[in-house]
Amino acid sequence: MTDATLKDTAVRRRISLPAIPVSVALAISWIVAMLVIGAFAEKIAPYSFTQLDLRNRLAAPGNVAHWLGTDELGRDVLSRLLVSIRISLLIAFGATAISAIVGTTLGFLAAHFRGAVEQFVLMLTDFQASMPFLIMALAVLAFFGNSLPLLIGLMGLFGWERYARIARGLAISANAQGYAAAVRQLGATPSRIYLRHILPNIASTLIVSTTLVFPEVILMESGLSFLGLGVQPPMTSLGNMVGYGREYLTRAPWIMLAPATTIVITTLAVSVIGDWLRDRLDPTLQ
């Protein structure tokens, strides 16, 4: 082979994209579609999600006016589904971000100070892991009432102990390696060391953990809304729609099946992406 041929082959290898399995590509496409729907839900929806059509109560799917049918009050199921996707994704993204920030911060504090601070953080993580979160969430929402900011903040307390354990262990390992010690000897502040040097090196593991927490938050919010303690009317969410549709499961199953199917496919898509990222980012599997 000539030098030009070898050079062209090397260039093609550098710019070639990693092969993505069909299941992962479908999962990414679904998540992108959900994000687009969440961003433009009110513009895409054919009706307002609170608009009533009492003459078309419990209309079956397939008609021109209501593609996915209507509920017990004549509200368009498709319009409510689109808005529900926005609310559920808002809760899931907000809660996952809070969980990641809180857990990673506590993990870094434990790794930096060690001693009593580390023991206190580990005690909190053990307490959180042993506490039935659903029961705690039911108690908090029953006592303080329901509001979207409170629900997002409460969901943000779910799963933070995983981030804390991962961040603590990886930060301790990074501190024992040369690059963190070298930056410290150059006079860098602890915040710069952890945010500019340690965090980028452990971000791949935290991202994989995020893909595990995200679907669990969606399911947890759906469960709370199903029990009537999550998103409250007139606002709607996927779990809220499932909760209202259970009373009409035999007469109008489409009320419940549409949001339930969306929940299942969305959580499955995020899990598939998470498994793929774990395999791609794990150096032992390369």
Automatic annotation (TrEMBL):
Its main location: membrane. It is found in: Cell membrane. Residues 85-274 form the ABC transmembrane type-1 domain. InterPro entries: BP-dependent_transpt_permease, MetI-like, MetI-like_sf. Belongs to the binding-protein-dependent transport system permease family. It is a multi-pass membrane protein. This is ABC transporter permease. Keywords: Cell membrane, Membrane, Transmembrane, Transmembrane helix, Transport. It comes from Bradyrhizobium barranii. The chain crosses the membrane at residues 20-41, 89-113, 133-158, 198-219, 254-277. Signal peptide: none annotated. The lineage of its organism: Bacteria, Pseudomonadati, Pseudomonadota, Alphaproteobacteria, Hyphomicrobiales.
